[in-house]
Amino acid sequence: MSCHPTPKSVEPTDRPFTFRVKRFFSQWVDDRHVCAILHEGIYRECRGPLFFSYNYFSERMGPIIYIGYRFGNYTFDNFSSCDPMKIGLTVGASFTFDPRKTAIAGVLVGLTDDVFCSLVKGEIARWLRPQIAQYTAQEIRQSLGFNRIETDVLALLQGNPDLPQLGINVSKVELQDPLLPTEIEDGFVQAARRRLDIAAVQGWQDPEFARHLAVIIAEKSSGEQYLNAADIFTALRQTRTPAALQPPTIEVINQAPTPPTEPPRPYTSSQSYSGPPPLEPRPEPKPVAKHGSSDNDGGNYISN
After folding, report:
1. Angle at Cα 104 formed by Cα 100 and Cα 105, nearest 5°?
2. Are strands 33-39 and 59-66 parallel, antiparallel or unpaired?
3. Calpha distance 168→173 (Å, rounded)
4. pLDDT tens digits for 255-272?
5. Own/partner pairs for 48-56, CB < 8 Å, 24+ apart?
6. C-alpha distances in angstroms, 169 versus 65, 66, 67, 69, 103?
7. How far is Cα 302 from Cα 304, in angstroms, rounded to an integer?
8. Sign of CA dihedral 200, 205, 209, 215
9. Does the pLDDT of residue 252 top 60, yes or no?
10. Residue 185 and residue 188: Cα distance in Å, rounded?
C-alpha cells in the first residue's frame, strides 16, 4: 500500500495589500486545508479555509488538515475467482477527509495519511471481494468487466454509512492490473504458446507428423496441466488426410445381393433321400481264355 503525501498549506507569493492587512490580524490557510482549534488542549472545532481567528488566551491552533483529494494505491493478493483460483489486483482510489462532517473529529484529526489509506483499503476489500468472485481468472486477467466492478464498488462505498460517518468520501475506484501467482502466470503463458502451436498443427497436411507434433507439445508442459487433452484431440480431428493418401473407393451399381449358400449336409441312413436315384454299379467283365489254355474250375478246353 502506498499513500500519496498530502500537500501543505502555502501562502501565495503575490500578496496584495488587503491580504497583508488581514493576515496581520488573523490566520490564513488555503482553500484545501482547515485548522483544528484546541480549547484547553481538547479539540473544539475546525476553522478555515482562508482567513480565521481564535482566542489567544483560551485557544490555540492544532494540526492543519488537508481536505482535498487523497490518492492511494492498494495491492490485494487474497481474492478468489469463481474457478476458484487465487488472484490479486492493484487498485487505485481517490477520497477526501473532512473533519467538519463527523462527530468524532477529535479522534481523527491526529491520524496520519497512512491510517486513512488503510481505512479506505479495508472497505474496498470488503466490497470488492464478492464482485471478483463473479468472474473467472481468465476474465480478470483480460480486464473484462472492470468498468462494471468499479461502478458497483463505488456505489456500495458511498451508500454504506461506515466511511461517511468518519468524514471520508470515496470519489473514485480504479482497477489497474490483475496479479496472479508466478506459477499460474507462467502456466497461462505456456498454455497460450501451446495453443498457438496446436493452431499451426491444424493446417498441416501430414496426419502422422501432426499427431507426433501434438504429442511433443503435450509433453513439453511441466507441473500442473493447463493444456486440456481435448485440445489435442480437436487438433488431430481437424487435421485432414490428403487426398493422395486416401484409399480408392469402388462403388458397385445395380448388383443384386448374392444369397448365402449353405454347406451340403452329409447323408445318413436314417434320413430320407429326396435327390436323384443312385447309379447301379457296373458288372465286372468275365475272363476270356486264350487258345491252349484251360479254365480253373473244369479244365474244359475252349476252341474256336
Report:
1. 45
2. antiparallel
3. 14
4. 555 666 655 555 555 555
5. 51/22, 51/23, 51/26, 51/27, 52/26, 52/27, 52/28, 53/25, 53/26, 53/27, 54/27
6. 15, 14, 11, 10, 15
7. 7
8. positive
9. no
10. 5
Closest CA to 108 of 40, 165, 30, 47: 165
How many other C-beta atoms can be found within 10 angstroms of the C-beta atom of residue 105? 21
Q: Where are the alpha helices (DSSP H) in 133-181?
A: 137-141, 146-159
Contacts of 82 (CB under 8 A, 6+ apart): 133, 134, 135, 136
Q: What's the grid cell of residue 247?
A: 484409399
Closest to 105 measured CA to CA, from 44, 47, 62, 161: 44
Per-residue pLDDT tens digits for 166-176? 999 999 999 98
Q: Look at residue 2 in the predicted model and tell me its pLDDT.
A: 72
The arrangement of strands across the sheet holding 33-39 comes to 42-47, 33-39, 59-66
Q: What is the pLDDT of residues 168-218, one digit of tens each?
A: 999 999 998 888 766 566 656 666 666 666 666 555 555 665 666 566 666
**Position 224 pLDDT exceeds 50:** no
Residue 99: how many CA atoms within 13 Å on its side-chain side?
Answer: 27
169: helix, coil or strand? strand
Helical segments of the chain, H only? 17-25, 105-108, 113-132, 137-141, 146-159, 182-202, 207-219, 229-238
Contacts of 202 (CB under 8 A, 6+ apart): 210, 235, 238, 239
Task: Measure the N-to-C terminal CA separation of the chain; round to a whole number of Å.
Answer: 147
Instruction: Count Cβ atoms below 10 Å from residue 302 Cβ, excluding itself.
Output: 12
Q: How far is CA 130 from the centre of its chain?
A: 17
Q: In terms of Cα–Cα distance, which of 204, 151, 150, 193 is closest to 175?
A: 150
pLDDT of residue 244: 46
pTM score, whole prediction: 0.59
